[in-house]
Amino acid sequence: MASIINRLNPFWIIVFIFFTWASIEQLKYETSSKKGAREAMQTYYLGRFSIAVPALMKQKIRSSKLRYADIQEMEWPQSLNPEQARKAEWDRFMAEVKKLPPPDGKDRVIIKVHEFPAVGKWAKGIFYYNDSFDRHGARWSLLMDAGPVGLWLKTDDIVVEKEIEHSKTIPNYENIAKAFQPLDLHNLKGRQPGNRFYLEHGAINLPYAGQEESIARFEGHPLKLTLLIEMETDFTKEIETMSLIKGTRAMLAVALISPGGGISKIRLREREVAGMPGEEAVLRVREGQRKDLVFTWQFNGKDDSGEYPTTRIEMESPDGNLHEKLKIWDAVLDSMKPMFERKKS
Fold first, then answer.
1. How much is the pTM?
2. What does the alpha-carbon distance between residue 33 and residue 247 come to, in Å, rounded to a whole number?
3. Can you name the residues that pair with 105 across neighbouring β-strands?
4. Strand runs (DSSP E) across the chain, as ranges?
5. Cβ-proximal residues to 338 (8 Å cutoff; 6+ apart), any chain
6. Which label site among 130, 226, 276, 328 has the fewest CB atoms less than 10 Å from its CB?
């Protein structure tokens, strides 16, 4: 043996030692319980929670609802001052409303225009028929100048007669708009005081009351990942009773006898995220020549609770790089935190 070693080129001995060491280190890393994503993460504030997303991914969709108001933020164009920007936005919206035909039996589209002098720097709302086939339903829309951003509040269709009689939307909009505060969320540190519901450019400091919804979608990762986060609480809706684990098991059973497709399980287990006892499924899905990885975490929520909303997080990508994607997935789930102190039950 010694004579063989003596005849070996020292260069190849060094190469052999290096690759042996590298293989051992890689094995130690892959089996370590402390392994995590090897890339930068960026924190986003969504509803009453924070969550970190790979910094390479860009937010493509963001929507929020609070107390049955659909909330949309807009950054004012830099080419205009805020007064010019809000006037241009209001005029644009009013021009669209005036194009709508009134419903049968109605002689006009606009029911009421209302100013909100105590809200923000400026605010105005309009109650109008948004559907020419519905003479009983209409919609409120309010535009507020909050300084660096504008804020639209819009309702779903509401019954005209009830709204005229009880006028519930105006005080609801006033409460929401007054509670909005623009924030630099990139420099936010830790939990903030109050009952903040976070948007993209600020927060509304109001406690939960009946209904909330937050949705965000991220795309653009080199591994072709898409990430969808959905949170909802609505006291008028029944909580889903089917668990993710049971639903996935049923889907796996069907896939066994379905031609042309296939589903294989990678993970299927209970998993707590942000103090919510949910369930996790990671699947490889084949349809024809295409294979995808589908990551899902789901919590069915608690009735009428802003602290325990129905939550679903999904990540999808083409098959491949499974270990790296699992690390990213784990980092996303482990990062999610409530931005409030939960009440002790």
1. 0.84
2. 29
3. none
4. 41-46, 49-54, 58-66, 69-75, 110-115, 122-128, 137-145, 149-154, 158-159, 180-182, 196-198, 202-205, 211-219, 226-234, 261-273, 276-287, 290-299, 310-318, 337-338
5. 48, 49, 274, 275, 307
6. 226
